[in-house]
Write a structure and sequence with these properties.
- By secondary structure, the protein is mainly beta.
- Helices cover 0% and strands 57% of the residues.
- It is built from no helices and 21 strands.
- Strands 11, 13, 16, 17 and 18 form a 5-stranded antiparallel beta sheet that branches. A 4-stranded antiparallel beta sheet has the order 1-3-7-6, with no helix packed on it. Strands 5-4-8-9 form a 4-stranded antiparallel beta sheet, with no helix packed on it.
- The relative contact order is 0.17.
- The model has no long low-confidence stretch (mean pLDDT 90).
């Protein structure tokens, strides 16, 4: 009988939109006629390559099979399952092994730096500057917000939130008054996800004098 199939995938996370390769293997079966099916969330997908090889065990000839599939990872694959299914005449039913795509998927954050109310801002108006990292996966991301200028400050990081699609969002914000000494202040938003390069956004605060009636 065929052994329980083993499915191996990438050893590092793959960014959504990129191709990922997976291998499935089983051995110890005879005769050599065997069927290997790949399924993603229950829907069959074609294998890129399937090879049946001879193997010798205790002077008996048996066979082993190796099958490979390549699929594009999608942003919504956090909970998707890839399944390798083996069918052989010696089995009462198919053998199968699944691979959780969420364990190797990376969805980069959408980075947005916003000033509220938008510039130009009237003098002595409360201002909130927010560095947003939105819709990323997995949840290990770092968000930092810096104010450069007369008032050098660092933003306060908020609570990480879970989105309905399985991604995460996080922000850092600064609150201040639009006084004359912060006019033309620059804000730097830095976001880093696991070992990826940092993403940064900058914005400048412009203040207008309030017109006298």
């Amino acid at each position: 009988k065929p052994s329980q199939p083993v499915v191996l995938g990438p050893t590092q996370r793959i960014t959504a939109g990129s191709q990922a390769s997976f291998n499935c293997s089983t051995l110890g079966f005879s005769p050599q006629e065997i069927t290997v099916n790949w399924l993603k969330d229950g829907k069959r997908i074609p294998a890129a390559q399937t090879n049946i090889l001879n193997s010798y065990e205790k002077q008996n000839i048996s066979y082993q099979v190796e099958s490979r599939v390549e699929i594009p990872l999608e942003e919504g694959d956090m909970k998707s399952q890839l399944t390798c299914q083996i069918q052989h005449r010696s089995l009462d039913g198919p053998l199968q092994q699944t691979f959780a795509l969420g364990t190797i998927l990376r969805v980069p954050p959408k980075v947005r730096l916003e000033i509220n109310p938008p510039s130009p801002i009237q003098l002595n108006t409360p201002v909130t500057v927010t560095c947003n990292a939105e819709s990323f996966y997995p949840e290990d991301a770092k968000v930092e917000l810096f104010a450069k200028g007369a008032q050098a400050k660092k933003g306060k990081v908020g609570m990480k939130t879970s989105n309905p699609d399985g991604t995460f969002s996080l922000n850092s914000s600064l609150e201040m008054m639009a006084t004359e000494d912060v006019n033309f202040s620059m804000f730097l938003c830095l976001v880093q996800q696991d070992s990826q390069s940092r993403v940064n956004e900058t914005a400048t605060l412009f203040i207008t004098q309030q017109l006298e009636g």
